[in-house]
Amino acid sequence: MRPDSLKQATDLLAARDYTIVCGGTDVFPGLVDRPPPAAMLDLSRLDEIRGIADQHGAIRIGGATTWSEIAAAPLLPAFDALKEAAREVGSVQIQNRGTVAGNLCNASPAADGVPPLLALDAEVELVSSCGTRRLALADFILGNRHTARAPDEILSAVFVRKPHACGRSAFLKLGTRRYLVISIVMAAVVVDCAPDHTICDARVAVGSASVVATRLPALEARLRGRPLDADVAQTIMAEELAPLSPIDDVRATAAYRMDVARELITRALRQACEGGAHA
C-alpha cells in the first residue's frame, strides 16, 4: 500500500500490521533469502513527513527526509556533526534514498545518525490514529533493533531545540575502510564554546561501543566551564567512559574500541572548538 496522506497511513496501520518502508535501504537488504513481508506500507509519497523547517523555536526534520537533503541543508554549525554523519551513511545512492526515520527505527548500534542526534538532545515524534506523542531519542532506542515505536505508529519527525549561535559540533567515525563501512566506533560532540575556547556546555555521544549509542554525562560535566586544553581533552578518565560496553567481534576487540572512543572524542572536541568541519 502507498498512502497519499499521513492520516490514511495511520488509519491503515490501525487496521492491520504492516512493515513500513520509505527509502527501503534497510528493509530490502535485510530480507536476503527470506520472503518479503506479507504487507508493506510505502510512505514515500507523504510530503507531510519530509523536509527541514524552523518551527516554534525548534528545527523539525521530517522522518522521510533523506540523508542527502540533511547534508545539503543550510543549518547552524551545531548541526555540522549530523551533516558529517549524513555523508557517512553508505554510498551516495543510499544517502539519496535512506531516511532519518529509517535509520532511527532500524536501531542498529552502528547507525551513523544516532550519536549526533543524541548529542543534540533530539526528540522523535510518533503519530498514530490515536494521536501524537514525543519521546527523547535516548528513550526511543531501547536496544539492538528495538525501539519504543508501537506497531501502529509512524516516526513522523525529529525535533531539535534551536541551538545557540555559538554552538559547534563534530562527528568522527572509524571503520576498516573509508567508504561503505560499518563503524568500529564513532563519536559526536556538540559544544557551546566561548571565543577563548572555554566550554560553556558539552554533549558527547559514542556509537558502536554499546548496544545503543550512549551519552557520557560525567565527561560532559567535567568539560563545562573549562578551557579546552590538553589536560581536559586528552586525559579522559575510565569512569567517564563507564557507560560504554564495547564487545569483541570480527571488526575489533572491546579494548581497542575503548581506546578508539577516547581518541575520537578528543579529536572531535578539538575540531568542534576550533570551528567544526565547516560542513
Structure characterization notes:
The chain has 279 residues and is of the alpha+beta class. It folds into 2 domains: 47-161, Uridine Diphospho-n-acetylenolpyruvylglucosamine Reductase, domain 3 (2-Layer Sandwich), CATH 3.30.465; 167-273, 2-Layer Sandwich (Enolase-like, domain 1), CATH 3.30.390. 30% of the residues lie in helices and 25% in strands. It has 11 helices and 14 strands. It has helices at 6-15, 27-31, 67-72, 80-86, 92-97, 100-106, 114-119, 137-140, 217-223, 230-234, 254-273, and strands at residues 19-21, 40-42, 52-55, 58-62, 123-128, 131-136, 141-143, 146-147, 154-161, 167-174, 185-193, 198-207, 214-215, 226-227. The strands form 4 sheets. A 5-stranded antiparallel β-sheet has the order 3-4-9-5-6. The longest helix has 20 residues, at 254-273.
Low-confidence stretches: none
- Give the end-to-end Cα distance, rounded to a whole number of Å: 38 Å
Tell me the structural class. Answer: alpha+beta
User: Which fold does the CATH topology of the largest domain refer to?
Assistant: Uridine Diphospho-n-acetylenolpyruvylglucosamine Reductase, domain 3
What's the count of strands?
14
Radius of gyration: 19 Å
Q: In CATH, what is the class of the largest domain?
A: Alpha Beta
The dominant shape is: globular
- Count of the separate structural domains: 2
